[in-house]
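Input (structure):
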């Protein structure tokens, strides 16, 4: 009987110890998650909204141009961040580019109705044939708490679910880099052909939009001419 009581007491002590360890771990994880040492990193105090016009002007002749961190971060904050307050919403996105290292990304994200500081490293590949830039994230942290992919991926997938130009798929953020335009019967494409990361900036290049438009108008005129000739032929047949 005494032996059974001793065994029961040992089991109880082990269970209580495990509970205490889990509670302490939960408190530590919560404290790390709510720790925000990145306020000076993700706060965007200056803005530069010239990226769309800079890209458009240089796309006319397909020339290379520089896009600064400030230009890109302003564009991302204007097109990805929203005024919504639902889970998964991103705020204050800030990317730091490094020539020979992965980019660093800082932001704020709403998760389980709380705001957290988010940090990630990112590597990017550009698929010009399919018009997609794929970004792979790693070394992510919520506050100072490391986040495994099994938790990070659903968060990012939810954050991008209603975005028009980007989606989170197969563990990567896929951003559209080719845009097709239709003006009545004239069709043309704007495609990013170069995205080379430098320190603090990116060197970009698009296809030659002037040449693209010339070809599109030529195809339109040929098509219209064939329709006119066909109509004239039917009148005299």
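Output (sequence):
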């Amino acid at each position: 009987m005494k032996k059974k009581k001793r065994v029961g007491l040992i089991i109880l002590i082990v269970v209580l110890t495990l509970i205490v360890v889990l509670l302490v771990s939960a408190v530590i994880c919560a404290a790390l998650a709510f720790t925000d040492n990145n306020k000076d990193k993700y706060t965007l105090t200056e803005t530069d909204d010239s990226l769309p016009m800079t890209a458009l002007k240089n796309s006319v002749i397909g020339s290379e141009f520089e896009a600064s961190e400030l230009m890109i971060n302003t564009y991302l904050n204007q097109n990805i961040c929203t005024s919504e307050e639902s889970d998964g919403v991103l705020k204050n996105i800030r990317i730091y580019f490094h020539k020979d290292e992965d980019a660093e990304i800082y932001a704020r994200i709403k998760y389980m109705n709380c705001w957290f500081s988010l940090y990630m490293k990112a590597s990017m590949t550009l698929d010009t044939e399919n018009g997609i830039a794929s970004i792979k994230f790693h070394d992510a942290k919520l506050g100072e708490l490391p986040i495994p992919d099994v938790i990070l991926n659903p968060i990012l997938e939810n954050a991008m679910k209603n975005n028009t130009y980007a989606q989170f798929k197969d563990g990567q953020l896929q951003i559209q880099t080719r845009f097709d335009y239709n003006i009545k019967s004239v069709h043309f494409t704007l495609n990013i052909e170069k995205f080379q990361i430098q320190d603090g900036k990116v060197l970009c290049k698009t296809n030659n939009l002037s040449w693209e438009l010339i070809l599109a108008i030529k195809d339109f005129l040929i098509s219209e001419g064939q329709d006119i000739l066909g109509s004239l032929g039917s009148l005299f047949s």
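Notes: Residues 156 and 212 are 35 Å apart (CA to CA). The chain has two domains: 1-34, 35-216.
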